[in-house]
Amino acid sequence: MARLFAFAGLAVIALVPPAGAQTPADLRALARSYYAWRDSANPVATSDAGEHRWDDRIGDFRMPSVIARRRHVTELLARVKAMPASGWKKDDQVDWTLFRAQLEGADFFGRSLQPEESDPQVYVNEAANAVFTLLKKDYAPHRSRALAATARLTQVLALLSLARTNLTQPVRLFAKLAIDAARGGDDLFMTSLMTLADSLSESDRARLVTARDAALRAIHDYADWLDQRLAVMPEWKPMGVARYNDLLHRVLLLPYDASDIAMLGEVELARYRGLEAMLKDPSFASPDPARSQHIPANQVEFLSAYESRLDEIVQFLRTNALVTIPPYIGKFLIRQLPEAFKPTSPGGFMNAPGIYDRDPSGFYFIPTYTPKSGNFYIRAAIEDPRPILGHEGIPGHFLQLSVAKYLADEIRRQHSDNTFVEGWALYGEEMMMREGLYPEQSPSQGQVLRLSRYRAARIGVDVNLQTGRWTFDQAVRYFMEAGGLDREAAEGEAAGAAASPSQKIGYMVGKWQIMRLLGRYRDQQGSAFRLGAFHDKLISYGSLPLSVIEWLMFDDATAVKAASVR
Question: Which residues, listed in sequence order, are joined to residue 366 by a DSSP beta bridge?
Fold first, then answer.
């Protein structure tokens, strides 16, 4: 443990960039040093990205180290801002803009929001992901990963001891989510982890079991500690309009204010509720397994059926030349969602290949299958999994992020703009519907409309929660009444909006921006226009803000400049 902390601390000193950087080459050197420092300081996140040099470590959460990291980001951001980028060539200006936004994001979510002091989930997530990132892919022999897990688990007790000291202002909502995750995640440690133990010696297995049991006790003790203090914890508070606008402009490079985003959400919500009403049978918008010809008997059959439908989508895309699927794209697999992640991910989540990953395969983690579940995502997956599968797999996240990881430009490859990533996946749902994937007036079309409807509702929740206009209970009710979600999904969505500001707006805001670029591209191309060519060009830029993509695609920096001015 001491060696880990010393190593992380030295990384801050060794990688401090030179002062007075002035050229594009200096910018790229600063970026390389920052990525190396960041990866070393965040070993669990780095494992998740596919780099496994530090698989035996977890993060250093001692507050002096946390504060030192925040200070390092702030100082580096100041140096980047001081560069005379306005006189550089366009591509160099683009990279400067992107790297500055990356640092703005690290500065905002670290120094401004201070999650180590306020969010108990930080520590539960670190403990769970320390194991989960070693399990999700067979990147190394079982024995190697089991030994790394043992090393990480032995550090969990100290991690959760530090949490008690660091959490000077824990938020009640986040504490409740952390408690649920801590108490619901035993299978990750007791079952999933032990699949790696099959090649261990008796003594190594004993050490793994000892470390696992001690870590699990510490996690449960941490949940009990939080539970005992819930009554005196402050309620969740919004960040306010000014900081929310800073997030939109400085980090996401959006040329819109909170009021603009909220209005877009209202407009799109009204549109999709109206489109639902125009269905010959409006009940098609609410998935109903009773309409399905076959209901899977168990989890294994459910996962297998889900995965097999991807082939239909791929064939449709190729037949209609809607997007190019490069030969390096790997397999996309469906897996069960670990219980530890259920509180804030009621619909599951997708894992594409990380930017350092040598394995091109990806995964979609879906909730535990229950044939009579009221969960929207389970009901939808039984009736027709293709809308959600297209969002998470091909042409959605898995394809787009797989293409992005092969970019030659390091700064652009390292960028991960949520608005573009989620906007592209949501755009793909409706694009495939309008191009004829589903029968007219079918439950599948209804599901696409409902998915867009509740993504539009997400905007209102995110903006109004974070700017202080709504309470948490109002957000839940809005998701149910306006978005059409069941209570379980609505509570999880609202919790996610509170815990991850701006994440929920990305879907519909990004889709709207893509539609705007599509229309402009069509007008530019005239009779030479081909929809598949637009899609290929769009995702070739990587996961960049759409204001930057507009700059690259049309040589028009108006949107980027508008974000900077605001």
Answer: 336
Residue with the two structure tokens 């070739």:
540
Q: Count of H helices and E strands in the chain? A: 28, 3
Residues 415 and 461 in one domain: yes
Q: Check whether residue 358 and residue 214 sit in a common domain.
A: no
Please state, in angstroms and rounded to a whole number, the distance separating the CA atoms of residues 311 and 79: 49
Q: Is 192 within the bounds of a domain?
A: yes
The token pair at 278 is: 């125009």
Structure pTM?
A: 0.92
- Is residue 329 located within the same domain as residue 405? yes
Span 59-111, pLDDT tens digits: 999 999 999 999 999 999 999 999 999 999 999 999 999 999 999 999 999 99
Measured distance CA(457)–CA(474) in Å, rounded: 12
Read off the pLDDT of residues 42-54 as tens digits, 9 standing for 90 and up. 999 999 999 999 9
Domain count across the chain: 2
For residues 92 and 166, membership in a common domain is answered with: yes
Q: Is the dihedral of CA 242, 483, 306, 367 positive or negative?
A: positive
Q: Is residue 561 part of a domain?
A: no
Are residues 224 and 269 located together in one domain of the fold? no
> Are the C-beta atoms of 37 and 72 separated by less than 8 Å?
yes
The answer to whether residues 412 and 95 touch, using CB atoms and an 8 Å cutoff, is yes
Neighbours of 532 (CB within 10 A): 14
Domain carrying residue 6: 2-232
What would the DSSP string read from start to end of 76-127?
HHHHHHTS-GGGS-HHHHHHHHHHHHHHHHHHIIIIIT-HHHH-THHHHHHH
Looking at residue 251, what DSSP letter applies? I
Q: Is 421 in the same domain as 348?
A: yes
Residue 516 lies in a domain: no
* Phi-psi category of residue 560: left, alpha or beta, with phi > 0 → left and psi -120 to 50 → alpha: alpha
Cα gap 118→106, rounded to integer Å: 17
Instruction: Kindly report the number of other CB atoms within 10 A of residue 104's CB atom.
Output: 22
**Structural tokens at position 41:** 């300081």
Which of the residue ranges 10-19, 284-293, 538-547 would you say has the lowest mean pLDDT? Answer: 10-19
Which pLDDT band holds residue 120 (cuts at 50, 70, 90)? very high
**Which one of 207, 232, 257 terminates a domain?**
232
- Alpha-carbon distance 341 to 178, whole Å? 10
Angstrom distance (rounded) from CA 555 to CA 123: 44
What the block records as the tokens of 134 is 């070693």
CA atoms within 13 A on the CB side of 93: 16
**Tokens 């997400």, residue located:** 458
